[in-house]
Amino acid sequence: MDGDELRWRPPVILLIPILLCCIFIFYVDVFQLTTLNISSTFKLPPPRFLGYVEDNNLNDYLIKTEGCRIPYMDPLDPSIVEFITNEKQVLCNKNKPPLFKSNLTSLHVIDSSLKYYKIHNESALECCYTVFKRVVPNFKENDNKVEYGECLPFYRDVNIDDEFVKVSCTYKSKQIYTDFFSFVPIKPTLTTQYSDSTSLLNVLVIGLDAVSRVNLHRQMPKTVQVLKEMEAVEFLGYNKVADNTFPNLIPILTGLSENELAETCWRSINDRFDNCSFIWKNFSRKNYATAFGEDSAWMGMFNYAKFGFTVQPTDYFWDPFNYRSEKEIGNQHKMNVYQCVGSREVYKVLLEYIEKFVLRMRQSNIPFFGFFWGSSLSHDYLNKPKLGDEHYANFFGDLVRNGILKNTVLLFISDHGIRWGGIRATFQGRMEERLPFLFMVLPSEYRENHHLAYSNLKRNARRLITPFDLHETIKDLLNPYALTQNFINSRAENRDGDVRGYSLFELIPSNRTCLSANIASHWCTCQESTKIDNNSNIAVETGAFAIDYLNNKLSGYAECAKLALANVHNIHEHSTKEQFIHGKSYYLDYTIVFETVPGNGIFEATIRKHVKNGENTSYFNVTGTISRINLYGSQSLCMTEFHIKLYCYCV
Question: Which UniProt keyword terms apply here (predicted)?
Answer without folding.
Answer: Membrane, Transmembrane, Transmembrane helix
